[in-house]
Amino acid sequence: MVGIGIMVINRKEIQTREMRALTIVGQSDQIKRINAVTYKVKSQNSDCWYDVIHVYKHGWTCTCNDFLFRHERVGDCKHIQAVYISKELRHKVLANNDVKEIESDNKLVCNCGSLNIIKIGIRHNKSGDMQVFKCKECSKKWSDNLGFAKNRIDSKIITVALDLYFKGISLRKVKEHVKLFYGISVSHVAILKWIHKFGEVVAPFVDSLVPKDVSGVYHVDEMMVHVRKEQHEKGHYQWLWNMMDNTTRFWISSKVSQRREVSDARAVFQDAKRKTPTPIAIVHDGLPTYNEAYWKEYYTMEGKRVKNIRSVSVRHDGLNQKIERLNGVFRDREKVMRGMDHKESAQKLIDATRIHYNFIREHGSIKKTPAEQAGINLDLGQNKIEGLIKLASKPRKLTQTTL
Asked: Which residues is 308 bridged to in the sheet?
């Protein structure tokens, strides 16, 4: 009978927490989304904010006293449940058919968020006719150009050019293909700008998605890349730092730097912490920089520690083969490019390549994209590049709320 009484009490407490969580979600500015695995939730009784963080293998944690002292007996506190509800609402908004229709059709929504759109004529381009629209709220004019506001080329041609480039074709050969099959003359510089714009539009969206099915064993490695117009003690070269998950092959982070110092390695670890749950192990090639960065970013005296695994590869006997294979994929791409111009443009190209690798390109060994293997299913359709750009162009307007 005592056990039944405790069960009833716990059930009532759980229901009360759920009601309070709904109250938190219903109020504005009570939940702040810091990144994919970190939220701040305001206390209902004071002006303090609690940190709600997802820890790998442990789930969501909260810094409130209710979670710290009664979690084992009652379960998640109201702040964690509020985050659950907030995330569920956000996913429902993105999955709603009406919203998806708006998101997939850039003609219907202005960047200011207004739906008061009218047609004002047809633009006649070499690639075909395009409908021109005008927002009656802010007077902005635009055509259906797949998120690339200043382009007057048909979106299908843009996605074809992007696909050819990411498959290893040089910019000039992509230019020749577009001229031969579509009769459109574009410069290789214009195609390069499309690639940069692709990364700029899509990166904020995909970096906000949590790869929930990652293994927790992250591999990190650095490689030298040719950047023509950057002069350093190593010549015209920079360092590219890559981090990826072991089983899903999800490419987590890519950073370009001039040196191999502790601050550069820390930047990679910090980027990974913003995008993914806390790992169970970091695997690297033994560079002392990684050890120092690990102690500053991942080592903790409390809770379960992240393992620091040093693996010095001798031919194929090391543990870092998968990240070295990823480096080889990018090296093949770099040979076709014959180097990159500046550090900034190099970073944009690498970010765009990372997005294509994770969300567009099917991995040969897992027969899926790394994003799908990691539990991120976006249903991008047959033209994945076009679907990803359209999906990334509009949700940012929706996610500016606490959802």
From this structure: 282
**Closest to 79 in 3D by CA, of 110, 50, 109, 36:** 50
How many whole angstroms separate alpha carbon 49 and alpha carbon 267?
26
Task: pLDDT band for 233, please (50, 70, 90 cuts).
Answer: low
CATH architecture of 217-375: 2-Layer Sandwich (3.30)
**CA terminus-to-terminus distance, the chain:** 42
Mean pLDDT of 7-33: 71
Name the E strands within 102-245. Answer: 117-125, 128-135, 141-143, 217-226, 237-245
168-199 pLDDT tens trace: 888 889 999 998 888 888 898 889 889 988 98
**What is the spatial distance between Cα 155 and Cα 171, in angstroms, rounded to a whole number?**
18
Q: Which positions ≥6 away from 323 have C-beta within 8 Å?
A: 219, 220, 221, 242, 243, 244, 283
Q: Residue 14: is its pLDDT beyond 80?
A: no
Tell me the C-alpha distance between 16 and 183, whole Å: 66
Which residues does 72 contact at the CB level (< 8 Å), separation at least 6? none
Pair of tokens at residue 30: 């009570």
Torsion (CA) 34, 36, 38, 40 in degrees, nearest 10: 50
C-alpha to C-alpha distance for 329 and 326, rounded to whole angstroms: 5
Q: Round to whole Å and give the CA distance between 285 and 319.
A: 9
pLDDT digits (tens, 9 = 90+) for 262-304: 999 999 999 999 888 889 999 998 889 999 999 999 988 877 8
Gap between the Cα atoms of 312 and 287, Å rounded: 9
Task: State both tokens at 286.
Answer: 């033994």
DSSP 8-state symbol, 107: T
Look up residue 4 and give its two tokens.
């039944």
Of residues 303, 317, 265, 305, the one with CA closest to residue 287: 265
What ranges do the domains of the chain cover? 2-95, 101-206, 217-375
Write out the two tokens for 370: 């790394």
Angle between helices 384-393 and 343-359 in degrees, nearest 10: 110
